[in-house]
Write a structure and sequence with these properties.
The protein is mainly α. The chain has helices at about 30-40, 45-60, 70-80.
């Protein structure tokens, strides 16, 4: 995973915040709204969203990246012709624990 650019993270509005805020469980609307509000003001929202999509293309990834939830990233990825990795999906076939 070292080929993904993470340099944007140094300027992220969420830097130093509790990462759990950006990893809400389904239905945790207060966390989702709070994370999205932080992302909306972030100077690196776009590279973060791109990073989230690249990560989701490789791993079954949840959480808020660039203000987008997993399902929102999945929609954007589908529009770009990308696939989202899932534990049942072909992107993870052959991986072992």
């Amino acid at each position: 995973m070292t080929d993904l650019d993470t340099s944007f993270m140094r300027k992220a509005a969420c830097r130093g915040m509790d990462p759990d805020l950006f990893m809400p469980l389904r239905g945790e609307m207060i966390k989702i709204r709070t994370a999205k509000a932080i992302c909306a003001e972030c100077p690196v929202r776009i590279p973060c969203a791109e990073y989230g999509m690249q990560l989701s293309n490789r791993f079954d990834t949840y959480g808020i990246f660039g203000g987008y939830t997993r399902s929102e990233r999945e929609t954007m990825m589908r529009q770009r012709g990308m696939t989202m990795a899932t534990w049942a999906g072909s992107n993870l076939v052959g991986l072992t624990a």
